TrEMBL record:
Keyword Protease annotated: yes
Keywords: Hydrolase, Protease, Serine protease, Signal
Domain of life where this protein originates: Bacteria
Cleavable signal peptide: 1-31
InterPro entries: Peptidase_S1_PA, Peptidase_S1_PA_chymotrypsin, TRYPSIN_HIS
Protein name: Uncharacterized protein
Length: 445
C-alpha cells in the first residue's frame, strides 16, 4: 500500500481560508435544479435494455409499460419495468455480488490459477454464470461440482472449455503494457489493450490496424489476439452544470473555478491517518497551480459550498484517475447519491478489485446523467492508464468523477469515454485503487 498523508498544517491553512466563504445555510438539504435527463419512451431503446437483462421484449408488453407508467406498479430506472421485475433484478444482482467472487476464489483453489480461465455473467440469459476452465474435459467432476455448489444455485452455473488460463493472458497483457513506448518508436499506433474474458483472448486497438502490425504481436506472443481499428485520442474527459445539496451527495456538480471546468462528485471519504474529510472526483478535473478552488454546485449559484484541492491530492496515471477535494466538516458529507429516477440512493459497502467481473451490473450517478449497464472488461489499458474498468452505461458531459455503484455497492468514479470492440464504451477507476493510493476510507454511514 502506498502510504499517503497530507501535512495537517497545510490543510488547516487552506481550510481556514476556505471555510470563511461557506454559506450560512450549509446544513439544509436543498436542490436548486433537478437533473435534465428524462425517461426514454422509445420502444426500441426499452426493448434493447430489457433484452440486456433477459426480460420480455414483446412489443405489446413494452408499449403498455410506457403508456401505463405510474411510478408505483410500473417504474422507470434506466428503462421501463414492473415492480416485480425490479425486485427480481435486485435479488439477482445481490446474489451475484455476494457469490460470484466466492466462486472465483473456489475455482482458483480447486483448479489452480494455471487452469482457471476466468468467469463472466450473461445477464441476457437471466444471469447465467460461465466459468472458464483450461482443458475442461480432463478435470475431475468432483472439483467442478465443488465450484458449482459455491454459487448456491447450481442451475445458473455453466462450465466452458478455455484454451488459455486467465493468468497466462494477464501476464501477456502486462508485458505489452511495459513495452508501450517501444511499440510507439516502431510506429505501431497501439491505442489500448484489454482482456477479453468471453472469447479467451487479448483485445488490441490499433490506429493503423495493418496485417504487419498484427503479425508483430503474433510473432512475439502467439495467436492470442483480436484486433480492432481505432482512432487516436478517442478517450474523452467530460464535465458540465448545477444541483445543490448539503450534506453533499455523490452524483452532483463540482465547479473547478481555477480550471474553468465542471465535474461530478464521486463519494465521500475520510483519511485513515488523520481527521481529514474529502469528496472524491476524477483527477483529470484538476487545473494547474498549487491549489484549485472548487465550488458546489457552481461559483455563481446562490446556495453554494466553497472547497479546495491541493496539487498533492491529485493522481491521473496508472490505476488511478482521482483527486481529493478538502471538506471542512464531516456533517457536510453523506453516503447518499443524487439519483434521478427513484430518488436518493445509499452506499453501504464498496467493491474490491477482485470482486468485479464481466457482466456485473453497474450504474452511474452524475450531475448530468444517470444510467446503468454491465461491465465489459476489468483490465482496459491505454497510454499511461492501466486496469480501467469498462462498462456500457451511458455517459454525457458533466459525468467525469461521477459515482459508479450498484445495489448499494460503491465501485468507483467515472473517467470518460473509451473504445472497446469497435465501439465507444465508458471507463471508471476502481474504488479500491483510489483508497489504496490515497490511504482513505469511504464514508458509508
Amino acid at each position: 500500500m502506498r502510504k499517503y498523508t497530507l501535512k495537517a498544517a497545510s490543510f488547516l491553512l487552506i481550510a481556514l481560508i476556505l471555510l470563511t466563504t461557506f454559506q450560512t445555510n450549509s446544513f439544509i438539504a436543498v436542490a436548486e435544479q433537478s437533473k435534465e435527463n428524462n425517461r426514454n419512451n422509445s420502444e426500441d431503446f426499452n426493448s434493447k435494455k430489457r433484452e440486456e437483462y433477459g426480460l420480455s421484449t414483446d412489443a405489446f408488453t413494452i408499449r403498455k409499460l410506457i403508456e401505463k407508467y405510474d411510478g408505483e406498479k410500473i417504474i422507470y430506472e434506466d428503462f421501463y419495468m414492473t415492480v416485480e421485475e425490479k425486485k427480481e433484478l435486485d435479488s439477482r444482482f445481490s446474489h451475484q455480488n455476494e457469490f460470484v467472487p466466492k466462486v472465483k476464489e473456489k475455482a482458483k483453489e480447486l483448479l489452480t490459477e494455471d487452469d482457471f480461465g476466468g468467469l463472466y455473467v450473461s445477464q441476457e440469459e437471466g444471469g447465467i454464470l460461465y466459468v472458464g476452465v483450461k482443458n475442461l474435459n480432463k478435470k475431475n467432476n468432483d472439483r467442478l461440482n465443488g465450484i458449482k455448489n459455491e454459487y448456491k444455485d447450481e442451475t445458473k452455473v455453466k462450465f466452458i472449455d478455455m484454451k488459455h488460463s486467465e493468468k497466462e493472458l494477464t501476464i501477456i497483457l502486462d508485458k505489452i503494457q511495459n513495452k508501450w513506448s517501444t511499440y510507439a518508436i516502431k510506429g505501431i499506433g497501439l491505442q489500448y489493450t484489454s482482456l477479453d474474458t468471453i472469447n479467451n483472448k487479448i483485445e488490441i486497438g490499433l490506429i493503423n490496424n495493418t496485417a504487419e502490425a498484427q503479425q508483430l504481436f503474433r510473432d512475439e506472443y502467439g495467436d492470442l489476439f483480436i484486433f480492432y481499428k481505432t482512432e487516436p485520442s478517442v478517450h474523452k474527459e467530460e464535465g458540465d452544470t448545477s444541483t445543490y445539496v448539503n450534506p453533499m451527495q455523490g452524483g452532483t456538480n463540482l465547479h473547478n473555478y481555477t480550471a474553468g471546468n465542471n465535474c461530478s462528485a464521486g463519494f465521500a471519504a475520510k483519511s485513515n491517518a488523520e481527521n481529514l474529510y474529502w469528496m472524491v472526483t476524477a483527477g483529470h478535473c484538476y487545473g494547474t497551480g498549487a491549489l484549485n478552488v472548487v465550488y458546489h454546485p457552481t461559483q455563481s449559484s446562490t446556495n453554494k459550498l466553497t472547497l479546495g484541492v491541493a496539487v498533492g491530492n491529485v493522481r491521473n496515471s496508472g490505476k488511478v484517475d482521482a483527486m481529493l477535494i478538502g471538506v471542512g466538516l464531516r456533517s457536510q458529507l453523506s453516503n447518499k447519491l443524487y439519483y434521478q429516477y427513484v430518488g436518493s440512493k445509499t452506499l453501504t459497502s464498496y467493491a474490491t478489485g477482485s470482486s468485479e467481473y464481466v457482466g456485473q451490473h453497474v450504474c452511474i450517478a452524475s450531475r448530468s446523467n444517470d444510467s446503468c449497464g454491465t461491465i465489459l472488461s476489468t483490465s482496459l489499458n491505454y497510454d499511461d492508464q492501466t486496469d480501467i474498468t469498462a462498462a456500457n452505461y451511458t455517459a454525457i458531459p458533466g459525468d467525469s468523477g461521477g459515482t459508479i455503484f450498484g445495489n448499494g455497492v460503491l465501485f468507483g468514479v467515472h473517467e470518460g469515454d473509451q473504445q472497446l470492440s469497435g465501439s465507444t464504451v465508458e471507463g471508471y477507476t476502481q474504488v479500491e485503487n483510489i483508497l489504496t493510493y490515497f490511504d482513505i476510507s469511504p464514508i458509508l454511514d
